[in-house]
Write a structure and sequence with these properties.
Strand 4 and strand 5 form a beta hairpin. With about 260 residues, the protein is α/β, with parallel strands linked by helices. Helix content is about 40%, strand content about 25%. The chain binds adenosine-5'-triphosphate. The site of adenosine-5'-triphosphate (ATP) has 12 residues, from strand 2 and helix 1.
Amino acid sequence: MSSLRVTGLRVRHRKTLALDSLDLALGTGVHGLLGPNGAGKTSLIRVLATVARPDAGRVELLGEDTSGHRKLAGVRRRLGYLPQEFGYYPGFTVRDFVAYVAWLKEMPAERVPAAVERAVARVGLADRIDAKVRTLSGGMVRRVGIAQAIVNDPAVLLLDEPTAGLDPEQRVEFRALLRELGASATVVVSTHLVEDVAAACTEVTLLDAGRIAYRGTPQALSLLGEASGGPGDHPIERGYTAALRAHRTTGAREAVR
Ligand SMILES: Nc1ncnc2c1ncn2[C@@H]1O[C@H](COP(=O)(O)OP(=O)(O)OP(=O)(O)O)[C@@H](O)[C@H]1O
């Protein structure tokens, strides 16, 4: 069953069509969202996170239509979201901040302290749990962002460029965490790093100019790259370029018809 389904999704920012009649259904696993700058990844994640409304189309999360307010609170309780630009209170400690998000998500109060400690430990910050967020490095703050997103053990987890700013060791650990989370949740992760996709994703969706250019497994994208012989330093990078080119050529052919 798909825990996340969008149909005919359209998002416009003034004159820019960020998402153009998008259809997508995702189930349990780690779904890598790839695409060039401006492809529409953040626009899609924001709509899925229910922080932005689409101009047209339908968004179903965990079997509920998100256009009605009635079911929204229940769905949000089961969501985790790390925005690209994540706001926090610098004077809060890591513990207080993650607990605050748990409270926003209406977690039962008695479950909060243990859930906070577990989420913070899972991102490797147990030794900084009582440090003020303002005293942490950029990469550590990003990890606090991941901790607040997973504190409620979400059924749908949306992460917008979570590995940006993480050091290599942390990226490796984070990918292992992604794989663990993807065993039971639907995880959508936007990234520009092919290593994230190769190591952590069960499926890849490539967006280009608000449309889906490619969907498949990382293995299939690698094979496409190997067959294309196009530019790139990694088979997935070559697959990415080949899939984009194929999509753009088809689009151009349809346009002259
Ligand atoms: N607030 C806004 N006002 C005007 N245009 C916007 C706004 N937000 C996004 N856009 C435009 O919508 C399109 C999609 O942007 P979006 O941020 O979703 O892309 P992205 O794939 O996340 O890009 P990146 O890889 O750079 O993060 C782009 O053309 C962008 O310029």
